[in-house]
Fold this sequence. Notes:
The chain is an alpha+beta fold. Helices cover about 40% and strands about 25% of the residues.
Amino acid sequence: MLISTKTPLRISFVGGGTDLPKYYKKYGGEVIASTINKYIYFFLNKNNKRNILLKYSKTENVIKKNDIKHKIAKAILQRYNQSGLEIVSISDIPARTGLGSSSAYTVGFLKLMELLNKKKKSKYDLFKISSKIEIKNFGERVGKQDHYISIYGGFRHIKFLRSGQIVSKKIEMKKNFSSKLEKHMCLIFTGVKRKPNFKFYNKILKKNDQNQYLIKKIINAIKAENIIDFGKVINETWELKKSNLKKISNLILKTEKILKTFDIYGLKLLGSGGGGYFLVVGSVDILKKLEKKFKEKYIKIKFELSGSKQIKF
């Protein structure tokens, strides 16, 4: 029996940090984010043995679930009365690079086990369970936008109300503008795998006014189909983030300095600021120059409209 899932990673354009429960329960939070065509894949084979074999960046072979070292895998597998499993996970992008890979891993693994057990939970139930698993393992330092968008997919405006309710809608774009925006965006790897900068999240946007201002600006840029203004808003979010960071890696600053020698529209470091990828917005000609300059550190992306799903063979 072979079961497989495919779960997209994401880019958060505006509002990162406001999806933390500690923040939105006080001020309310809003994010603009999109899933992209980079994924985490799971493959599960069921056999008649008693062990559980996990293959990710490491390999674990255990009899007792309590002996599993991977916190998320352990928490998910303990929910099910299953053994005799071989589970392999593969990612298009390395972990700890600011693209929500931890949450995508949680969502994809949970969906995999639901399929194995022939259960049909709603998307919202999967969201509640997956976010609860990660928050339980890592505390209130984990936001909820990543789980939500990994499950639902698309280019979204997501509001986290103080009551705990979530209001989400897809941002509608004309197909030609969506394709055009994709052509004007890329990712550039800084060379640094990040450690989450939770001190930053504790400081950022003490009031929601500034975040709402940026949300409105980026929505207006999308409505006006203005890629230059879109890039400028992205840059504003990075300058705000940077002003709240006590320490930034020299490699990150070096990469930023090089990027700014090109005539780009804007950039931002994805994730919590400790490393990973810069999102860069610029003209098609400039992006071609960046590809030539950064080579394997340069990644083209497209928007993914779907969330986590089963791969059928």
